[in-house]
## 1
Amino acid sequence: MRGDERTQLLWGIMPIFNAGGSAKPEPGSIAGAGYVPGIDRLGIPALRETDGSLGVSYLLGLRGDYSTAMPSGPAMASSFNPQLVREIGSVMGQEARAKGFNVLLAGGVNLMRDPRAGRTFEYFSEDPYLSGVLGGASVQGIQSHHVISTLKHFAFNAQETGRKYVNSVIGDGPGRESDLLAFQIAIERGQPGAIMCAYNRVGGKQACASDYLMNTVLKEDWDYKGFVMSDWGAVWSLDSALAGLDQQSGAPLDPEIYFDAPLRNAAHSDPAYSKRLKDMNVRVLTSMLAVGLGNEAPKPGGAIDFEAHAAVTREAAAQGIVLLRNTGVLPLSASVKSIAVIGGFADSGVLSGGGSSETHGMGGPAISVPRTAADRFAKQLTHQYQASAPLAAIRKRASKAEVTYRDGRYIADAVAQAKKADIAIVFATQWTTEGFDVPSLSLPTGQDALIEAVAKANPNTIVVLETGGPVFLPWKDDVAGVLEAWYPGGKGGEAIADVLFGQVNPSGHLPITFPASVEDLPRRIIPGSDFLTPSFFGTEPTPGATLDADYSIEGSDVGYRWNARKGITAAYPFGYGLSYTQFRLDHFTVGEDSASFTITNTGTREGADVAQIYLLSHDGRPMQRLLGFARCDLAVGKSCKQKVTIDPRLLARWRDGQWTIAPGDYLLGLALDAETIVQRQTVHIEGRSWN
Ligand code: GLC
């Protein structure tokens, strides 16, 4: 490389023409999140980058195309099915490449430290092991099509309020045992070509300028060989390069394009920068070669089998649906005579989340309301419904029934319809988006009152939730059935009907705790939400302003672990999920590095179950951690014998630069969910340390 070539791969633009991105369409770029020109002379391809974790993003429709809209992160994670998540990744990678992209900004593995966080719908879980396993599977699938996947956002990016300057406060030990462990496991399993550093600060330092995160943890301790790209508009200084940042993304959004001439000049005079400059290029090129990008960027217009991909998103949505309550009303019979469908725009489609991860299925959304027209980027946040209407799918399943629909704005009218029907199904929605957290876990727009009224009018009331994450369910004991469908993607309406009528036996298990009360959370409110003016980019209100999110309160005890430490009972615990059949878990045996058990289908129909293995305590002190899980699809009467290997880091603490398993008695549990332990076994461990 010579001259300007030496920094050409180290910064990119945001080629969203005429929408506040680059000044002019760069030759060779296509509308997407990012573009890094290649070097033809050296056979180095351009990097064309698009979002996101849930499919190829629509990005204001600038390309005029569509993609397969995958269900949300919690929906994928509810399947506890790494093979399925890998297949989802493969579909996303194939579509990205066919559209001309060779980088997919996917792999959102931030832990859901606060269920009110706006991007919960993009992430997998509150648990580091589940997040790491699924994050790694997604990356494997994406990169199998020679498309670099990221993992993001590195690290502790757990709220949207003040997201570009909030300071995540957590010690090295608890951090390594939680958020960082999710990244570490996902990197080991997926080998992502790139890591995206986050907007927020960690320990007072901007994540994209954090020597601790990028050099000490990622490149030294974990020996990561790929490259670190910044988030968009997350670079404030040239010395970010010395802290380990390798590529400045969307560089025109930053105060300066530091990784262009300023970097070359610094490298000319400063050996540290000269060494870094070489390493930055080596890392980008290493990932290009490792993922097999070839010498040219892919040509747009490649073939996509949307029909086959639709089957994948429908299966993913169905496996992600969690049956939370069923008094016997489900599955519905196809001969049911009358159904009152109410609310949730069920006559139009299914909800999806807002922001850079937004995908539009074929034909675009059924409904799309921009969050605001007042901000060039916030227009990207649309309150949209994928064009997959549950009402049409229900009518198709119950073709002989009278199926009415009311939008639910007039409760009396909805009640009148419910009174007349055999079954009432209320669709309840909670829109969430990048850039903004939700003020409460209560369902918005008076939906609780609607549900209560309908439940009083009809004892066979079923609630279908389309939410970004957990919500409060004050009416849960007053209804006959509750399904959590999350944001179920481009075939979500059909998937919901498949489960309602039993074509699919629900097998989802919660990847995040549904708390019973806000008092049960480590923080009463999202830090900053009581005084900050909400804004998409969340920039500091005054230069140098500070905002701390103190995650040292819970440390690595996120979600179910927090509940175990504090003796709190959830509304619905992590790992919870019902089925239309029954299962028995037994033959539980444990060793220091593995656990075995059997799942048997003891019911009257086929179905899949997810058994979980937890650490419950060490020498009698509560210390709950998911150690492993297994999913089995079983015909009636059939069993599966499972053996899960236990990652020793899940039994350890990270202190003073190493993992240590303290000697003592470790109580392990075979469980249906984090609060329902069916068998217990103790294993004595002598203890050891390693790093
Ligand atoms: C956004 C997001 C990031 C996304 C990037 C490019 O602000 O934080 O997840 O990949 O910018 O759109």
Note: Residues 33, 51-52, 105, 152, 231-232, 356 surround alpha-D-glucopyranose (CB under 6 Å).
## 2
Amino acid sequence: MQTALEPIYLDYAATSPLRPEAQAAWLEHVHLLNPGGQYSLGRKARAALETAREQIAAALGAEPIEVIFTASGTEADNLAITGFAHAAWNNKQPVRLVASPVEHPAVKEPLQLLAKHGAQVELLAIDHDSQLGQLELLDQPAAVATCMFANNETGAIYPVAELAARAAATGTPFHVDAVQAVGHVPVDFHQLGVTTLAASAHKFGGPRGCGFLLAKRSPAPQPVVVGGGQERGLRPGTADVASAAATAAALTAAVAEMAATADRLSQLRDHLTAGIAASIPDVIFHTPKKALPGHVHVSFPGAEGDSLLMLLDQQQICAATGSACSAGVNRASETLLAMGVSEQDARAALRFTLGPATTAAQVEHVLAVLPQVVAQARSAGMA
Ligand code: PLP
């Protein structure tokens, strides 16, 4: 039975607790020195870094040389988007960029910045079932085309292999932000046919502050950060060997458990969805059928997302609205707006994301308190 003092963590898409395997690997490697050192201690650090690179490559259908360590998923996305734009710019080609309209700010903001510097950004369309449209934009050459593997708010999984193949027909490099997918659903870099892929360790039980870009040898983006020649010159800087080892350990463990965890979580997710639909009137679900196993994204029209979060927090339940809040103002999610959801309904959205430690008892507890929470938030009204 859930006691009042035990928080129920249902915000795994924001970050996941560190896996014990990752903690052990980090502690084992944290004393190692510079992997660039030309002496035995350097070679020892280098060997650990290369082992981590090999493990990550093996888990994701890539070659070790294609693994570029970064300090976050955000950095990996920026490197790909800005780096391909700069590569086109250096080749005196027009900088045309094609993207889905539901990208994470880690992709969207570099696109907006590049647009300010003269790049032409064109967005695909999307509907409320998460079906992408205007795919003909992929039939003209571009500096880069991009679509995330799975959406951080709705959990929707997009047909990335199909989009990448269409872009490849015109020689366009394709970047996929797979931050929400890696470690949760099967991801094979070579099978996807993409040019670059971004991932983030803390989304699958690795340390916060470590990510990587899988990058084919060619075409490769220009580096965004310049300095030494580490990581194929794409991401110079002395490598964090302990975080790389912890990331590899977390990913290996997540992949080994993936099928069983996905099966268990999708059952809990379906139970949560059915329970909400049965006990609360007028709800709008945003998570489509083809989605990550642990996502439930739903609007409760008439209730402010912030009020829902606060009332759930009082019940020791950690959830999210799904969209970025700034200065305490609940903004409608740009993803939901792009999907055709009204501004009022988008502001009434709540995201539960389940993870390895989520139990059936926790889901029952949420279902027991949620009707009252929604009724209270609805009676407080929208700001
Ligand atoms: N891309 C997606 C889809 C995400 O969900 C996130 C994190 O929420 C990121 C990129 C950024 O990853 P990081 O937190 O490692 O910078």
Note: Residues 72-74, 77, 104, 106, 148, 152, 177, 179-180, 200, 211 surround pyridoxal-5'-phosphate (CB under 6 Å).
